[in-house]
Structures are given as structure tokens and as C-alpha cells.
Amino acid sequence: MTILDKITQRKKEEIAFSKTKVSIDKLKNSAFFERENFSLKESIKNKRGIIAEFKRQSPSKGIINDKISPLEVVSAYEKSGASGISILTDKDFFGGSFEDILNVRNHINIPILRKDFMIDEYQFYEAKSIGADVVLLIAACLSPNQVQEFAELSHELGLEVLLEIHTEEELKHFNSKIDLVGINNRNLKDFKVDLQHSVNLKNLLPKNVLSVAESGIYSIEDFNYLKEKGFDGFLMGEYFMKNENPAKAFEEFTKVVL
Q: What domains sit in the chain, N to C, each tagged with a CATH number?
């Protein structure tokens, strides 16, 4: 069983429990459900920039940074020019929570991506209810039909969709409802990073699709290489979060590359 299988199995249990505690109707009554969302698609179009991620830990790296508050970090990310913010909400494997989004939503004016393993329509109502603007659909966890259905539901709720792929086979998950395509430089099954593989996949996408390079960007050279190859956006977390002061690390990085 791969780590992705373990996460998905645990996610099913988590969702089943959540459904017994909070109904969809109750989620619809949240303060954020009627808000007008920010567009990550437009933000990326306008400034071809970084989706800066707040992430405490990961299955492959363990604890990355659990000493700093989300608000302190993401406010600084916005100030230094981030196009959007990615926040992990998976608790068991990434140390995240809904509160990490709820505590920052009213303090920043750029899009927030709820980064989680979305496998059930209930989660999309959750995402809307906590103030997310964008959801992540991981092709490796879903069928092409599920991606289509979840993308349509997302748009009904006013959410944008970032589809994450890693293999040529997963290109079949793309459909006209997808707002952005993220190409994961890291294989979710063995965690190996291959930037050239991502570039090859990007070149197979329709020309008008916004592409986001995800994970495994470990240096300015990596960033510039992917930028030169035509990626529109860059989802980066560990590179900044591994520093004692992620905000300062992000500011210094953007002075060089943006």
C-alpha cells in the first residue's frame, strides 16, 4: 500500500465521521458561504507568480516547521507578492486544519487554495464554508469522471479547480472545467523529483491552459528553469517553510526571481 493509498483510506474515515457531526445544510449556513471568491486563475494570469504554501509537515519530510502561525506567514507572503496561498487542511499526515484557513481568511485579499485529498462531494461544501477560493483535485486519487463531476460542483459553488497530474496517463483527467493544471515534479508514490518529466508533460497540455509547477523546487535555478520552460505559476512550500523565518525567506526569494 502506497502512502497515497493510506491517506485516501484515512480520508474516507475522516469524511464519514464529519458527515455525522456537520450536515451540508449547516455548512451552507457558514459566514463564508456567500462571499465572492478571489480568482487564482486571474491572479496567475496577471503576475505569473508563486502560490506560497503554509505547511507544517509532510509524510516524506516529517516536521518542517511547526513553530510559526499561519497568519504571520501568509500575511507576509501576500505583502511580498504571492499570487495565492496554499494551506494544507489534512491533519493526520500534514498537521493541518480548517482553522488554518479560517484564521487568515479575513486578513488577506488573495486566493486561498484548500490543499487536501478531495474524494467526496462533502469536502467541496467544507471548502466553501471555510473561505477557500480554490480546491485541488489529485488525478492519482480520482477517475476522469470524478474529476468532471467535482469540477462541475466546484464551479456551482464558486470555487476554482487546480487539477494535479504527474503522468501522461493522467492527462485523460483534464476537461474544459479545469481552471489550472498543476504538474507535480515529485512522484507521489516514490517521492522522486524529476523537473524534465514535468516539462515534458506541460508540453502535452493544450496551449491555452494555465500550468503550475508543484513541489520539488529546491533552488532559484530550479525556479528559473521551470519559468523558462513556460510554466505560468509555481506552488512552493517547503523551500520557505523549512526556514526559521519563512516570511523573510519568501521576501528574499521574490526579490531575485519576480
A: 3-16+40-257 (3.20.20.70)
